[in-house]
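Quick log. Single chain, no ligands specified.
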Amino acid sequence: MADRVCVARIGAAHGVRGEVKLWPFTEEPLALADYNPLETEDGARTFHVEIVRAAKDHLIARIDGIADRDAVQALTGLELYVPRDRLPPLDDGGTFYHHDLIGLAAQTKDGTPLGTVLALHNFGAGDVIEIGVDGGATMMLPFTDAVVPEVDLDAKRVVVVPPGEIEVREDE
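-> predicted structure:
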């Protein structure tokens, strides 16, 4: 999996002519078609995606070889990947792919373990980091510089400042 990055998920059918709702996980949603062909997680199947238009929170797309609603329904929920080497290179300015954070250890500034990064979400108001803690519980925290001041990919960890411990500067 480290050599593949999930860039989209196929949603429900849109209409009866084979169009799909497609949820992109790329910084620029319409750029998704630039990564064609897209693949299944195991690389066994490939898909060529044509973006028809942007919708409120997703894209409407056509997939080559998919011509009707039933064919789309068979693909609903399928995640689409690209080999990592086809993605744009990252600069060294503290940028990373969300995919790189999954599985990293989460700890406080003093090194106390909190859990493991399970996912990053965006529900419309900014990124949220989901951390799995012992016992199956999860924490959902804003993925901001104040709450996650350090991402260290080499050390495979993120530093988390729980919201109650964030230092608030008061302007004088």
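Residues 98-163 form a domain with the SH3 type barrels. fold (CATH 2.30.30.240).
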